Amino acid sequence: MQTAYKRIVIVGGGTAGWMTAVAVATLLPGSEVELVESEEIGIVGVGEATFPFIRLFHERVGIDETEFLRATNGTFKVGAEFRNWRTENHHYFHTFGNFADIAGPTSLWSQYRRVNDPALGVLGEHCLASVMAMQGRFVKPPSEQSNLFTYAYHLDAVLYSRFLRAIAEKRGARRTEGRIVGATRRADGGVDRLKLEDGRDVAGDLFIDCSGFTSLLLGRTLEEPFVDLSHWLPVDRAWAVPCEPSGTELTPHTIATALEGGWAWRIPLTDRIGNGHVFSTRYIDEERAREQLLEQLEGPALAEPRLLRFTTGHRERFWVHNVVALGLSSGFLEPLESTSIFLIQRGLLKMIDLLVPGKQPTASAVNDYNKNMLKAFANIRDFIILHYCLTERRDSQLWRDVSSMELPESLAFRMHVWRQTGELNQYKEDGFVPESWLAIYAGMENWPERLDPVINEVPFEEALRGLHQRRDQINAYVASMPTHAAYLHRVPGR
Ligand SMILES: Cc1cc2nc3c(=O)[nH]c(=O)nc-3n(C[C@H](O)[C@H](O)[C@H](O)COP(=O)(O)OP(=O)(O)OC[C@H]3O[C@@H](n4cnc5c(N)ncnc54)[C@H](O)[C@@H]3O)c2cc1C
Predict the structure, then answer these.
(1) ipTM of this model?
(2) What domain range includes position 163?
(3) What is the pLDDT of residue 430?
């Protein structure tokens, strides 16, 4: 049985558009799927570091990992390394791993703080995935111990769109080439049909707006207001350029290096390194930002750097009438934690779950969808701001401003609770798990003012021995793993 929306039209063929086409063609059998895109306009073509949710998405839509890695020159990602964020020459890891217990008498971080033994190194050395990143090694978690850590990927964004397109078309999605110049509305305010430049019309029952920053339907046609977040997330430009790999170790993680007016990314693929400098024109001009990026490259540039312009923020609502926006058309919160593709996949699967066959989603279900997406954006917004506001750098205006700015109330409250009580379970929600918040707090050396006395239930010597043992076990396990490059060579067809 098909859903109330027989004809589903997708506007745009970037990562968001083709992911949507695959999901709709696979999970909503009986729907007619048409994707309209303009080759002349092209796609944003960045977005190459991901979040572990991508694996769940691939599983739901039946995408095979080996085929995906081969098609996208993909590599594995266990997290990110943050360089120079707290102070210059300081670095830490935020990986998709755990730190054993995070509350109660055996809380690992609390015992680590309590025993205060310099020989134990930084807290990251007690997290398996972070040690894998530090040593450039990778294996998938054993299936019986999948709670040890999880992983995501780095991918070539252009190849990923192509790969998804081939799958979507094979599963019945139809592609229409053409530039959309407008849309006609129904009596209830929804969209009736798209108008193409050459005079053709594309009619639909449900329109998924994946048109990128132009937000053709939700922004331009329906005029849904934009919530500007640039007072908290001031970056507004990025230079992006691939370069040849230098022959150094293929890291199983992204690197984000803080600079004078923003930060630079390094994303390793099997054939090249993706680089970018995300910056704010309030603090550095475009030319200087371009120079800083080129100075950082570890190998010859493979193209001219490309400039991307954006404003951080999102639409007030994401699903209005018969239009749902996914991807950049719905909003963008800067790429520091690789959350944009995650938000697309999350919104997409939630939308599909609401399209119950034979029923129109109720107004309250749509309302819940909007609230839920708003919350997801707010949580990620807070998590990204955390990386900036804890800085101890005062060497340029960007760092002076972000370290003294007024924070969103939700974040200020969380940070207060952490400092006062060491409580992390308040972070149990979609997206970033408590361990992620702990990784940033620990990495930035931001600790609670006192430790919960309950940890004294464990004798001091026992706690100290336990920490040393765990660290030794992690080191021995990681030493037995292949390097990330060697592991990738085992992917068939490489
Ligand atoms: C600097 C930067 C770095 C990023 N890094 C990451 C990252 O590491 N990880 C991550 O998860 N995300 C990242 N993102 C976000 C990520 O790039 C996007 O979420 C992802 O690529 C999806 O883009 P999209 O499909 O929404 O838009 P686009 O790729 O821009 O696609 C828009 C589509 O709409 C079509 N279109 C637009 N107007 C018309 C028209 N008038 N007629 C017909 N067709 C039209 C275009 O042709 C295109 O096909 C980054 C973004 C930026 C800007």
Answers:
(1) 0.99
(2) 7-48+156-230+312-379
(3) 64
